[in-house]
């Protein structure tokens, strides 16, 4: 049995499950899929040499998605509702990492995401660069999903 090839991180898609249309895959980057276990330090009674670290909860950073600025987009409209109208609709989304045959390798379901920040890159007439929008989402948690359970699109 030979070694498996390394997994690359540049072939992925993002599906917003609760928006219509729910397939928006044109993101250039996704960050924030991580969790940190918080701990509490407890000193052992009568024994000053030992301190125990006990888990107390898990925190998740904001999910940051970047892509070229879209003129008409259900994701952008969802963010505008939150930021401009203070109307929040928590949604779930999938982040799917694909192999070279475009088949899912690994997937994460991000649960109850809401937009907390939207920004667009600086405009500069001296550079010929794409206008990039950044979406920052707060979410409750994520869970890994088997590649076999991912919705085909």
From TrEMBL:
It comes from the Bacteria. GO terms for molecular function: structural molecule activity. Coiled coil: none annotated. It holds the Pfam family Phage_T4_gp19. This is Phage tail protein.
């Amino acid at each position: 049995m030979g070694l498996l090839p390394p997994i690359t991180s540049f072939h992925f898609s993002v599906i917003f499950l609760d928006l219509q249309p729910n397939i928006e895959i044109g993101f250039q980057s996704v960050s924030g899929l991580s969790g940190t276990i918080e701990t509490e330090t407890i000193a052992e009674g009568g024994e000053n040499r030992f301190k125990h670290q006990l888990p107390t909860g898990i925190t998740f950073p904001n999910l940051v998605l970047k892509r070229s600025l879209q003129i008409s987009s259900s994701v952008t409209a969802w963010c505008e509702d939150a930021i401009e109208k203070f109307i929040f609709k928590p949604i779930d989304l999938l982040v799917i990492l694909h192999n070279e045959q475009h088949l899912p390798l690994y997937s994460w379901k991000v649960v109850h995401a809401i937009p907390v920040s939207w920004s667009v890159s600086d405009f500069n007439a001296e550079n010929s660069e794409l206008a990039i929008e950044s979406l920052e989402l707060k979410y409750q948690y994520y869970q890994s999903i088997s590649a076999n359970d991912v919705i085909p699109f």
